[in-house]
Structure formats: C-alpha cells, structure tokens
Design a protein that fits this description.
- The complex is a heterodimer of chains A (386) and B (188).
- By secondary structure, chain A is an alpha/beta fold.
- Chain A contains eleven helices and 17 strands.
- Chain A is globular.
- Chain B is of the alpha/beta class and 188 residues long.
- Chain B has one domain.
- Helices cover 45% and strands 16% of the residues of chain B.
- Chain B has eight helices and seven strands.
- Classes of the chains: A alpha/beta (386), B alpha/beta (188).
- Chains A and B meet through loops of A and helix 2 of B.
Chain lengths: 386, 188
C-alpha cells in the first residue's frame, strides 16, 4: 500500500492516490503528470532516507522538505502558500504542510519490514545522453543529472545488449573511447549519436531499466563512504535496541554475532538470524521503484507494446514498483490488456471548465475492465469518468 | 452521468449532440475507421450503434449493411448479420446542425457559434467541442427539429431494445416524424 496526497502544488489542486505495483497516469500536457510523478518519486526517496537513517534527517527543519524537492527538480514556482504533501506506506507516514512549514512523521506497524529500494526517475528528455556527445558537462536539474549518472553506471556495467526488445539491434559500450555503439539488424555499426531518434530514445531507457530490474543484483557490493558506514552502524544499533536488546540476556545461553565490527548479544539463535536478515533488507537493494516519463517517445506503436510487455516481465522478478506517465493509447491499452497485478490507471483533469487547476481521478478495477471491454479510448473519453 | 458504451459517435460535435439528446456519456471514437474497428472487433457480434459522417471515404462496413430509413441528412442502416446499426449524417454533422438551425429559425451567433459553415466547422473540430456548452445551448434550441427528434427517438429505442430492436418499428419512428409535419426534413 502506498498512499500519496498532494494539495495545491503546481497545477495540482488536489490528488489522493492509492498506488499499486504498476501505475499508469495519463492527462493532457501541462496538467501536472510530471508534478505527480516527481512528488511520488521524491516521497519514495524521503522514505528511504528516513528508513536508512532512522531519523527525519533534516526534513523537519522549516521548509527543508519542500526546498530540497524543488531545488532538485527545479520547480520552486510550483510551491503555493498552502501546499500540502502526505505520503504513507506500511512502514511510515509523513506529511508536509507549507502554510505552517511543518513536517510530521510517524512509524507504522510495518516499520521493521522495510526493504531497501533503488529509486529512479527516468525523464522524458533521456535521449540527451544519446544525442549530445558531451552530455556529462551539460548544466541540468538534479533529476537529469541523477539519470545521467545512473545511465553512465548502467552502460558501464551492462556493456553489451544483444537483440534488445527483439528488434534485431545490439548495443555495446566501449570503455576506451567512452562511446555507445549500436549494430543494426543488417550488421551495420553506428555510434549511438548517429542512430535514429527512436533508438536514441529507446536505448538509454532500455539499458537503464535492464540494469535496475536485473543487472544491479549481479553487481558486487559497492564501496561505501564514511557517512554511509556511520549510518549503517546507527541503523544496526537502532534495529537491535528496538527489536532484540530487551530479550538479549534472557535464557540460559547468550550468543554473540558480529556485524559491521560490533558484537550483538542474543538469547536465541533465531533472533540472531532474524536480526541479520532485517539488517540485510535495509542495506541491500531489494527492488526498484521506477518513475518513467513517456516511454513511447519516438517509438513505433508495436515497439511501444513490445516495451510494455518487456518491462512488465522485468519488474516481476523483484516486485519492482512502476509509475508511468504516458500520452500513448498503445502504452495505456497494452498495460490494461496485460492486466498486471496491482495495476492502477489514473488521469488528470480540470477541476472546472476553463480552470487551470487540475485534480486526479483514479479508476477502480471494475472501471479499468469496463474501459477495456468496451474499447473506450480514455484519451478522448476521460470526461466519462469525471 | 449514465454511460452508454455501445453508442459510438465519431466526431466531437456528434458526441456532444448525442450526449445532450440522451443525457448520457457515450463512447467517442476519434475517427470513422475507429468506429468501424470497434464495431468489428470490440463489439464483434454484439449490439452497438455507430454514428459517422457520410462525407468520408465509403467504408467497407457500409456495404455490409441494409438501409432501413432515410431523411434529408440521416440514413439508418442495419448490418446484414449482426445486431449492429449505423447512422450516417449527410454530408456531415456541421452542415446537418446548421441546416436544422436555419429551418428552426435559430441564429447560431446568439450562442457564440458562427453561422457560416467554415466558421462552424472550425469551431466544431476543436477537441473541446464535445463538452462545449455553447453547442449544448444550440442543441436545446433546435431539439424539436424533425430529424433531431428522429435521431433522439431512434437512439433511445435502440438503446432500450438493443438485441430485440425491430426494423419495422425503427422505420415507423422515422415516418412518424415525417407525418408530424416537421419542417425541413425530406423523408425517404
């Protein structure tokens, strides 16, 4: 369960969303789709930061919560005097009220069941990394810089992709020249920047998502900073103090386990194992939470459908969360047709005619079936559900 | 608002007009080939009614239909084998609505809608014309026009009876309007 409430932020006057494992958002241009996607992504990241540090981590200082978000996404103009954002999962609940500049957080019953997520936002302008040779020196917002950094990591790790999406194309990364290369179906080699706009849009998205949904789990443990090491020690001692310490010396035998150089005492072996398992869930990435803008960019409709099938298959192995904003009926209909578990379909719409304020309507499961069974083109008929 | 999924109008003003007449949301398709596609695939052997302009390339689907009745602007057809109906508007909905306004002595400019075909068509092609209240007000002013009444009664009858719809009764509905002496509509 993931509950997101947004009020008076950018064009969104009100949104109250229950997000599932696969979420598809449609709506006209400038109606707040990216605003919702970015807010959801930011909240997922805040949740991760709070869970890993076991404290509110500076988000509680005045308007720090909204300032960090708007700096990162360069959306300061979206903030209104009564902006309100609320986010809840099984693990925690937090809210930010800009009128009182207050941030509140409480743990929920599933607090200790947290599983670490890799949170990633894939922006619509992702093809910059393919089209512009010196993309790493461009001045961009934090979101794009983060994507560029993730893409750089993904391509260096993935190095090679054969026949991606069954299109007969292969990709390789040459570390010596730091270049991306494509081999076409007819065997002709091209630099990525020389390839078609479709490949330039698809490939960075494909390689990055392949890394997020599969390859990252094949990677050896990365080096961690001193700050991260301190954070982990704090996390270990917090988990221990809250779940195991009071029973640690009860019973006949006391067992010691050393984690990250510190000894922890347990009365029972199963407690020691559970403690280590809980800690591993916090420090090792368990799944990805992917926020994806317009996957259809520059793609032929059948490729759009192939992409949807592919990504649904990929996210199934680690129960990744996917939140997609799209303008494509092919993408929307393919998601509905494939009917993945936890599918949520929603659209932005004006609060009133000729009004620039938007809200979001989420379709019920029955309504999603109704749309599919009756061939309703949601892009032309969303008023039906307003 | 009530939803009628098996009523498939093709253009924005058709959608607005039909939603006004039936006081329900209908399943708008953004071109006539989409209407036919929905009739052939989504509804396949099921009951459905398509409403399209006549001025387009003649669709193969029309050749699979028999004509039931005709007015100056409207032709009602039934598919030879399926419980599906098609209403074509001749030459197109914009001319149809303007002609109805003329015979009802209604000035469309009074509703903020141009009275010349070019201006009317330009406005009616806007994507918001399916919800534009100016058109709703115009439809209210011309709702008693014989062909508008025939369209409303036919759609209401079809939506009510669906698989049990009777071709003779449908033909009668059109002729009753002719007999009522409504102006401006030539009935076949």
């Amino acid at each position: 369960m993931r509950h997101l409430v947004i009020r008076n932020f950018g064009p969104i006057v009100s949104a109250d969303l229950l997000l599932g494992q696969v979420n598809v958002l449609i709506g006209m241009q400038s109606s707040g789709k990216s605003c919702i996607l970015k807010t959801a992504c930011y909240c997922a990241w805040v949740e991760k930061r709070i869970e890993l540090s076991q404290r509110i981590n500076g988000f509680g200082t005045g308007s720090a919560f909204i300032d960090r978000m708007t700096d990162y996404y360069q959306m300061a103009g979206y903030v209104q005097p009564d902006t309100y954002i609320e986010y809840e999962t099984n693990h925690l609940h937090f809210s930010y009220n800009h009128s009182s500049k207050s941030f509140a957080m409480k743990w929920n019953s599933g607090h200790w069941n947290y599983r670490k997520a890799k949170v990633s936002y894939v922006p619509a302008d992702r093809n910059l990394v393919a089209a512009i040779p010196q993309w790493s020196s461009l001045s961009m917002d934090g979101n794009m810089i983060e994507f560029m950094s993730d893409w750089d990591k993904a391509r260096k790790f993935v190095k090679h992709e054969d026949d991606f999406l069954g299109l007969g194309l292969s990709y390789s990364y040459d570390s010596q020249s730091n270049s991306d290369n494509v081999r076409l179906e007819n065997g002709i080699p091209l630099k990525l920047r020389e390839s078609s706009s479709g490949i330039q849009s698809l490939l960075p998205m494909y390689v990055h998502l392949d890394y997020l949904t599969q390859r990252q789990y094949e990677e050896d443990g990365a080096k961690i900073s001193y700050e991260q090491r301190d954070e982990r020690k704090n996390l270990l001692s917090t988990i221990y103090a809250n779940l195991y310490k009071k029973n640690a010396t009860q019973g006949n035998e006391v067992q010691y386990v050393t984690v990250e150089g510190i000894d922890y005492a347990f009365s029972e072996d199963k407690h020691a194992k559970r403690f280590q398992s809980t800690y591993r869930r916090y420090v090792n990435v368990d799944h990805s939470e992917i926020f994806l803008e317009e996957p259809e960019d520059n793609l032929f409709p059948t490729t759009q459908c192939q992409f949807v099938n592919w990504i649904l298959d990929k996210i199934a192995s680690h129960n990744d969360m996917l939140f997609v904003a799209t303008h494509s009926p092919y993408v929307l209909n393919q998601f509905i047709k494939m009917a993945p578990k936890g599918l949520s379909v929603m659209f932005t719409h004006r609060v009133a005619k000729d009004c620039r304020a938007f809200t979001v309507r989420q379709l019920s499961e029955e309504e999603v079936h109704e749309v599919y069974d009756n061939g309703v083109d949601m892009f032309f008929n969303f008023e039906m559900y307003v | 608002m009530r939803k009628i999924f098996n009523l498939l109008p093709e253009c924005f003003v058709d959608t607005n007009l039909i939603e006004y007449l039936l006081d329900a949301a209908v399943n708008h398709q953004h071109c006539c080939s989409k209407v036919v596609g929905a009739l052939n695939s989504t509804f396949a052997e099921g009951f459905a009614v398509g409403i399209i302009d006549k001025d387009k390339v003649e669709l193969g689907y029309i050749r699979e239909c028999d004509e039931i009745a005709k007015t100056a602007h409207l032709t009602l057809m039934k598919h030879k084998t399926r419980p599906q109906y098609l209403i074509t508007i001749q030459p197109a909905v914009d001319r149809f609505v303007l002609d109805c306004a003329i015979t009802q002595d209604v000035d469309t400019n009074a509703f903020g809608i141009p009275s010349d075909l070019k201006g009317f068509t330009k406005l009616s092609k806007s994507v918001t014309s399916n919800t534009d209240s100016r058109f709703k007000h115009l439809f209210a002013a011309i709702k008693d026009h014989a062909e508008i009444v025939a369209l409303k009664q036919t759609l209401t009858y079809l939506n009510t009876t669906q698989y049990e719809a009777d071709v003779k009764e449908l033909r009668l509905l059109f002729r009753q309007q002719a007999a009522a002496g409504a102006t401006g509509a030539a009935f076949g």
